[in-house]
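Hi P.,

Sorry for the delay on this. The queue was packed all week, but I finally got your sequence through. Input first:
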Amino acid sequence: MEDAVKSVVDVSRYLFERKLVSGKAGNVSLRFQNEETNTIAITPTMKSLKNIKEDDVVLVDLDGNVLTKGIPSSEVNLHLSIYKKKKHINGIVHTHSPYATGFAFSNKQIKRLEGFGEIKKPYLDEIPYIAPGSDKLAKIAAKSLDDDVLILKNHGVLATGPNIKEACSLAEFVEEIAKTQYISYVLNSCDSFLVSF
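Then the structure:
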């Protein structure tokens, strides 16, 4: 249990340091076996990931029953729905990273690029805006998560993995490819502007 909690803290702080989250946005969770049952270690509500300590991490079971002190993230049902539906997922990272979230607020999609597994689809999966923290978001996201990442329109990024470090690496990679694509859009539009003169 101690290792799971420490991993949540380490990843939370890393995401903040890498500017993939800011303020009190974002949440992180990890599924682990605790006395032969699935337990979820998740970041608390209304606390910056920058300042997360091990005592802040909340443990819940798959039904959402809180096993320790504290209040879990408002997106706890989103995490639990995914864990229930996707047995191979043991780590979830939800970020509001600027470039990827910029795409989420635009009419453009993020292309899948080489560097993080086989490219099975041209673009990252996305779902329309649904109120954060709602049961509807939890249900639709779990149903729509086909691969490993989901863009939540007008909201942010949901990255998953077989462990929390893989989920974190994927969130970081998604931000990098979004940044690359944004730069390419800007440069291409500059070419069009210069040609017109």
